[in-house]
Write a structure and sequence with these properties.
- The protein folds into two domains: about 160 residues, Rossmann fold (3-Layer(aba) Sandwich), CATH 3.40.50.720; about 180 residues, 2-Layer Sandwich (Dihydrodipicolinate Reductase, domain 2), CATH 3.30.360.
- It has a seven-stranded parallel beta sheet with strand order 3-2-1-4-5-6-15, sandwiched between helices. Strands 10-11-12-7-13-14-16 form a seven-stranded mixed beta sheet. Strands 8-9 form a two-stranded antiparallel sheet.
- Helices cover about 40% and strands about 25% of the residues.
- The model has no long low-confidence stretch (mean pLDDT about 90).
- By secondary structure, the protein is an alpha/beta fold.
- Strand 13 and strand 14 form a beta hairpin.
- Helix 1 packs across helix 14, helix 5 packs parallel to helix 9 and helix 8 packs antiparallel against helix 12.
- It has 15 helices and 16 strands.
- The structure holds NADP nicotinamide-adenine-dinucleotide phosphate.
- It holds the Pfam family Sacchrp_dh_NADP.
- This is Saccharopine dehydrogenase family protein.
- It comes from Halomarina salina.
């Protein structure tokens, strides 16, 4: 039997992932995280072994990964956790997966591709809502237009956020936006571009955001210009605009600390009913200067989908199906990976302006 260690198992998303892994995976599970008092009740609840350790000391992490075939890291912000776990995975020959959406984490792990190859391990970040659906849609669009030069992706999510998601977002407040231009991740203002997009529910205002695909879509498709949009209310654009002017202030440690404390006090995350009822719409558009194609996806609520895709990515990795080296979800499992999950529907790539009945 293979062994999967879930790090950050007692966080909001870690619990969803753990519940699903218990139901779905034919593997030995080990629950892990830095706090013994938070970890033990969860391990008792599932009658699973647990390993409590921080990521501060490499040898300690390596010792805890001994005999583990794959790690699924759910402890974010991943800028604080991914590197230490990958350091240890390289030493112990353990495959690494996580649910990050942080551009700098994707880029840092992509830079470790050769190291991962040499260690004969897969390094597969981003196996949650960020970036599985958008990454798979990007790869699907690139199959329709292989010489494309421009890629736009976007989503409209219906549902609320967990504490960890908002805390991770707070960390990047004041850093502005990011797009990929001519193959390079490029800093832009928070409101770099707005446009009206039909995500599948009629046109709505959308704004560019520094989403993970700015990093990953380039690795998946080779398209050198990538931007990612999300649907926003009109007044949110004004608020985002203001964050650029306030950037020097928002970047300060005490502001971040205060905001994080408010988030910790006030946020819980979507409950079971919200997760059941929520959904997300994903859109993508690809162009080569002559033709433009678009495609859409409808998915379950973002945290529900995250648990589904993360556990399936772990299952495939334990089964030896994930190539070694740095991978994106679509480079590992193909553009159709996302379509296997219950509640996911894809409107396949077609030239912009045509509809299903035009086919
Ligand atoms: N890809 C996706 O679509 C997706 C979906 C959901 C969440 N996420 C991301 O996943 C992360 C977790 O979200 P969440 O909602 O589960 O948050 P959460 O409930 O706050 O849980 C965060 C977990 O990470 C642990 N952690 C944080 N910093 C750590 C560190 N330096 N060392 C060790 N453990 C650390 C926490 O442990 P303590 O409680 O001991 O601090 C906790 O177990 C966030 O970054 C979020 O953005 C991504």
């Amino acid at each position: 039997m293979t062994t999967l260690l879930i790090y950050g198992a007692y966080g909001y998303t870690g619990r969803l992932v753990t519940d699903r892994a218990v139901d779905e995976l034919d593997a030995d599970l080990v629950l892990a995280g830095r706090s013994p008092s938070k970890l033990e009740p969860l391990a008792d609840e599932h009658d699973l072994p647990s390993r409590a350790f921080t990521l501060d000391h490499r040898r300690v992490v390596e010792r805890h990964l001994d005999g583990v075939d794959a790690v699924l890291n759910c402890a974010g912000p991943f800028s604080r956790t991914a590197d230490s776990l990958v350091d240890a995975c390289v030493e112990t020959g353990t495959d690494y997966l996580d649910i990050t959406g942080e551009i700098e984490v994707f880029e840092a792990l992509a830079a470790r591709d050769a190291e991962a190859e040499e260690a004969d391990i897969a390094v597969l970040p981003g196996v949650g809502f960020d970036v599985v659906p958008t990454d798979c849609l990007a790869a699907h669009l690139a199959e329709a237009l292989p010489d494309a030069t421009e890629l736009s992706l976007g989503f409209q999510a219906f549902g609320s956020f967990s504490r960890g998601t908002v805390r991770t977002a707070v960390e990047s407040i004041g850093e502005g936006g990011a797009i990929r231009r001519d193959g390079r991740v490029t800093a832009v203002s928070s409101v770099h571009e707005t446009r009206r997009i039909d995500f599948g529910n009629g046109e709505t205002l959308a704004v560019t955001i520094p989403w993970g695909d700015v990093a990953t879509a380039y690795h998946s498709t080779g398209v050198p210009n990538v931007q990612v949009f999300t649907a926003v209310p009109e007044r949110a654009v004004q608020a985002l605009d203001a964050t650029d002017r306030l950037a020097p202030l928002l970047d300060r440690e005490w502001v971040q600390r205060t905001l994080s404390a408010v988030v910790d006090r006030t946020m819980v995350g979507p409950d079971a009913d919200e997760r059941e009822e929520g959904k997300a719409l994903v859109w993508g558009e690809i162009g080569d200067g002559e033709e433009t194609y678009e495609a859409r996806l409808r998915t379950p609520e973002t945290y529900t989908l995250t648990a589904m895709t993360a556990v399936e990515a772990a299952r495939r990795t334990l089964a030896g199906e994930t190539p070694t080296g740095y991978q994106t979800p679509s480079s590992a499992f193909g553009a159709d990976f996302v379509t296997q999950f219950e509640g996911v529907e894809r409107e396949d790539a077609r030239p912009v302006g045509t509809t299903v009945s035009d086919d």
